[in-house]
Amino acid sequence: MSRIVLYMWMSLDGFITGPDDGPGLGLGRGGERLHQALALDDGADPTSIRAADEVSAQVLAEAMDTGAVLTGRRTFDHGGRWNGDHHDGVPIFVLTRSTPAEPAPGHARWVTDVREAAALARNAAGDRDVLLHGAEAARAFLAAGELDELSLQIVPVLLGQGRRLFDGMPPEHVELELVRVLEHPEVLHTRYRVRKADAREVPL
Amino acid sequence: MSRIVLYMWMSLDGFITGPDDGPGLGLGRGGERLHQALALDDGADPTSIRAADEVSAQVLAEAMDTGAVLTGRRTFDHGGRWNGDHHDGVPIFVLTRSTPAEPAPGHARWVTDVREAAALARNAAGDRDVLLHGAEAARAFLAAGELDELSLQIVPVLLGQGRRLFDGMPPEHVELELVRVLEHPEVLHTRYRVRKADAREVPL
Asked: Which fold has domain B4-194?
């Protein structure tokens, strides 16, 4: 079955944006440091991203080889809604609390239910993975048991402030399995598998 | 010159304790998960720590080969003050806001100034490194430009809540250099060098 994989670039202190992120400033103040290993010709168009090194290129290629995109509403809006096409015209499912009056642009559609969004995305992706975007969405899919893997690119910098990937979580432990490390001076690429409760090997 | 090196076991979501840490519960509720790769015969005595695997053993040996210990007051108190001897009778400098009425036990002494504490510890360690303990102390030494390296053992778990290593920091970026990765299924051992402002290679 298609896996839902979160792709994020995160500072060592856990931030995925600098302070004051918002529309037109998706990475917050100074947050572009996190994407230094990527060269974005145009922030609004993910297909214009180029990797600065071979390892980043490999991870980026994996992200862009996914067959569907799941994203939170905030990430979608802050990224200019990608003009309705994240990559290759694959379906984009935007998790939102309430369905906006306007239709979602291009290949995007609004979904208000986490499990429905996960099912739609897995189905659309077929035998490919689903690319998950956004911290709040990641926490929602994790809580619903629908997050399968985390591809976390750990950037060697402390941002000090900004939006955290993991924040406001319940105190329950989520056990992970480190399945891959790709080392590069500019970014430490990690990939973790979420150990689902029914498959947990080590009792808490 | 002797380097000041922070040694910490941290969850992937950035916590170094579970919730409600305090005296007698130094790792907070559930925080002992972070030290699962270490077998502590007696939490109050660091010399009773044994590593569960060769990689953890190597990192632990490096920590215990240091020539002085720097610690924050909270970590010192929560750890039962190590009965005045962290390891091998090396000097322990305890950073505290105000000097307690009672003398520090054993090889420990109170210090109220960050730079004085750093200088005393470096001098005491001679040609060996200084072991730094505690999140609040780490932030104080980092802010003072006295933190040289971070030996961070990233544990594959999300704790969700607890005390963060990096919290309440100023928004200034601190650039790091990844100098070593030791991979093990149970813990990802990273070592970062702090790029000092005057040696910063990449302008922000």
From this structure: Dihydrofolate Reductase, subunit A (3.40.430)
pTM (predicted TM-score) = 0.92
pLDDT band (50, 70, 90) for residue A49: confident
- Using pLDDT thresholds of 50, 70 and 90, give the confidence band for residue B43: low
Q: List the single residue in B158, B162, B170 with the smallest CB-CB distance to A160.
A: B170
Q: Which of B33, B156, B204 sits opposite A192 (nearest CB)?
A: B156
Closest CB to B12: pick one of A18, A172, A176: A176
ipTM of the complex: 0.92
* Cβ <8 Å between A166 and B12: yes
Name which of B7, B47, B15, B28 is nearest B155 in CA terms. B15
B173 vs A160: CB contact, 8 Å cut-off? yes
Contacts of B188 in chain A (CB under 8 A): 178, 181, 190
Asked if A166 lies within 8 A of B14 by C-beta distance, the reply is yes
pLDDT at B41 over 60: no
- In chain B, what are the domain boundaries? 4-194
